[in-house]
């Protein structure tokens, strides 16, 4: 069975505003208005049910616009849920208590299905660092962990912590926060009708894709280095950094035919692409200079992947590039 691709997070931040993203950055007044709207929604729901919420707030435009071919496009309950989770993220200020999302039974079911399908593939395709980091985060198919719970395990290992984001940050903003060991992540869940597919980075991608390698000191330090270099990079260099991050930390592969191993979070969280990349992609030698000049298409399975002989080679070459900047 062929599944459409998952699109990892840095891509979401690369898309134009208005597509799968909140419509605009909010100032303090905007955040206050959102909080009031969120409160109103809660009051209406508790007092009168979801129907009242839809009736009273129908004049309020969606915060998150979905593509017409998104699995949840015609699902008003899902769209309202996405708006609510975006509101929580937009209202969040770094340093505040994390706005943990109480996930619904339906969302828990999607998480369970995704993990049960991905886990066996990880055993044969994931890199050693990923497999070592995964159990340290305590993920189980039985419950979606909150960011608070993940951070309690992650921070003592590498100093990294997750902070919620609604989607509307640029690649530069995303990478600059890595310098402080902050990984901006989305909290919403993909649509229940397609539990193995997401057109955007969701909580499965962020936690299952990125989490275990953020728990690895070597890969965590690489993430931090990306951030440190981004802080002083001009736009030309930022473009190179985005491509390096994409082809290594989202889609990096090493090994040889018959025994490829993956370090990239995009592949590690995509059931479809993880199962077929070796046959469907043009596998090219891992070359930092070539990668830095190679654009990518974030809207489909990757046509080109760069394959190193080892994870040490990926780490060594990335570190050499970043420390020379
Ligand atoms: Fe990602």
How does this model look, in words?
The chain has helices at residues 9-12, 28-48, 50-56, 76-91, 105-125, 128-133, 147-158, 171-178, 203-214, 217-231, 235-250, 265-268, 271-280, 288-292, 311-324; strands at 161-164, 182-185, 253-256, 259-262, 282-285, 304-308. By secondary structure, the protein is of the alpha/beta class. Strands 4-3-6-5 form a four-stranded mixed β-sheet. α2 packs across α4 and α8 (171-178) packs across α10. The protein is globular, with a radius of gyration of 19 Å. Residues 8-10, 201, 205, 209-210, 250, 265-266 line the site of fe (ii) ion.
What's the count of strands? 6
- The H/E string reads HHHHHHHEHEHHHEEHHEHEH
The top level CATH class name of the largest domain: Mainly Alpha
CATH architecture name of the largest domain: Orthogonal Bundle
- Outline: globular
Helicity range: 40-55%
Tell me the CATH topology of the largest domain.
Phenylalanine Hydroxylase
Structure characteristics:
single chain, alpha/beta, Phenylalanine Hydroxylase, 2 domains, disordered N terminus, binds fe (ii) ion
């Amino acid at each position: 069975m062929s599944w459409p691709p998952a699109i990892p997070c840095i891509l979401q931040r690369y898309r134009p505003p208005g597509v799968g993203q909140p419509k605009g950055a909010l100032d303090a007044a905007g955040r206050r208005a959102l909080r009031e709207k969120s409160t109103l929604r809660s009051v209406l729901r508790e007092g009168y049910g979801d129907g009242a919420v839809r009736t009273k707030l129908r004049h309020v435009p969606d915060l998150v616009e979905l593509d017409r071919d998104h699995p949840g496009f015609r699902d008003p309950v899902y769209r309202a849920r996405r708006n609510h989770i975006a509101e929580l993220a937009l209202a969040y200020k770094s340093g505040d208590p994390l706005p943990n999302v109480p996930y619904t039974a339906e969302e828990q079911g999607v998480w369970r299905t995704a993990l049960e399908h991905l886990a066996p593939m990880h055993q044969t395709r994931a890199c050693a660092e990923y497999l070592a980091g995964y159990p340290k985060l305590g993920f189980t198919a039985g419950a979606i962990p909150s960011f608070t719970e993940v951070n309690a395990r992650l921070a003592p290992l590498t100093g990294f912590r997750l902070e919620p984001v609604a989607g509307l940050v640029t690649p530069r903003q995303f990478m600059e926060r890595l310098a402080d060991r902050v990984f901006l992540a989305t909290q919403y869940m993909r649509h229940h009708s397609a539990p193995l597919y997401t057109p955007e980075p969701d909580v499965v991608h962020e936690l299952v894709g990125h989490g275990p390698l953020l728990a690895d000191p070597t890969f965590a330090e690489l993430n931090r280095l990306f951030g440190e270099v981004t802080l002083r990079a001009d736009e030309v260099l930022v473009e190179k950094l985005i491509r390096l991050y994409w082809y290594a930390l989202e889609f990096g592969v090493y090994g040889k035919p018959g025994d490829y191993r993956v370090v990239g979070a995009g592949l590690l969280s995509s059931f479809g692409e993880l199962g077929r990349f070796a046959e469907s992609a043009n596998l090219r030698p891992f070359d930092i200079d070539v990668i830095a000049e190679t654009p990518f298409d974030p809207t489909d399975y990757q046509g080109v992947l760069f394959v190193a002989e080892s994870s040490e080679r990926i780490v060594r070459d990335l570190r050499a590039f970043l420390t020379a900047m």
